[in-house]
Amino acid sequence: MKKVNFLSLFFLSLLFLPRLTLAAPYGEYRVTPRQFEDLGVLRGNSGQVLKYYGGPVISHVKVFIVYWGDQVGTELQLKLAPFYRSILDSSYMDVLAQYKTDIPAVDGRKGTGQTIGHGRLIGQKMIEPRNQAATLTDRMIQKELSAQIASGVLPSPDANTLYMVYFPRGVRIKGPGGSGGSCETFDAYHDGFKTSHGDAIFYGVMPDCGLDFAGATEVSSHETIEAVTDPFPTPGNHPSYPQAWNSIRGDEVADLCQMRPPSYVSGSVTSVVARPWNNSIGTCAKGPWTDGTTLSAFGSSAIHANLFPILNTLPALTPNTLWEGR
User: Fold this and answer.
1) β-pairing, 263-266 with 270-273?
2) Which pLDDT score is estimated for 83?
3) Distance between CA atoms of 319 and 52, rounded to whole angstroms?
4) Residue 260 falls within a domain, yes or no?
5) Segments forming the whole domain that contains residue 262
6) Is residue 1 assigned to a domain?
7) What is the pLDDT of residues 37-79, one digit of tens each?
C-alpha cells in the first residue's frame, strides 16, 4: 500500500477552500486579488455595498505626475500624461458622481457636502529625490513630497490635488505602517496626510513591478478613483472616520472589481482602466467610457501598441521640466 503524505494532502486541500476576503489596508492594489463570494453580506439591509463614513472626497481631482528620479521608465514618461488627460475628463468619472457626501455618515455625523465631477491633469515633474535609498518607507515618501513642495519644485496642494508618484525599477517600498512590500504584497497604494500647517496632501505610490503599460494604467486608474472617493484610507478591515466610501470591511470603489477584466476609455487615445463599483445598481460598471476630446492625429489605437509615435521624438523629462496641463 502506497504511503499517504498527509502534509501534502493538507496543502492541496487549501486550493479548494474559499479564498480569504481580507480588505486592502491603506488603499493597496493587491498582488493577489481577493474574491467576493459574499456580496450579499456586504450589502446588508440597505442593498448598497459601499457606505459613507464621514470623511471628505476629492471633488474635481487635479492630478500631478511625479517621477522619482531619472530612471523611471521612458514609456511611462511619454504616455502617462495623455492617459490621465483622457480618463480624468471622461464619462469614466461620471460613475463616481453617486459618491457625494451631502448625506449623514454611518455614525450619524454630518457629511462634508461635496460632489464629484470631472478632473484634469495639471502637470508632471521629474524630481531629484533627496532620499536615494533603495528601500523606502511610506514616511520617507511623505517627507520627500513635503520637502519638494516646500522648495517649490512641486506645486502647492489644495483640496483637489493628487500627486501620483512613479518609481524606477529596483526601488522597494514598504507600505504604510510597514505593511508588506511593493510587488510582493501590493502593486500600488494611495494615502493622505496633513502637514504641520494643516494642509492635506493626497498621493499615490506607484512602484515599477514590471507591468506592461496597459497593466500600469489599470493600476493607476484603480488608485486614482479610490483616492477620489476615499482620500484618507485607514488600516485594517473596520473603516471609520476620516474615511469616506468603503464597504464594512474597508474595501474601496475599485477593490470590489479587481477580479473583473478591465475596461476602456476611448477618445483621442484608448486607455485601459480598472472598473469601478456602481453602488446604485450593485455591480461593477462595465464601460467603455468616452473622453471629452475629439479624435486627434494620434488616432484611437490600443495602448498595447505604441500609441504615441510622435511623442517618441520629444526629449525625455529632466529635473527642470515642468509641464502644465490644460
Assistant:
1) antiparallel
2) 97
3) 40
4) yes
5) 24-317
6) no
7) 455 546 554 557 999 999 999 999 999 999 999 999 999 999 9
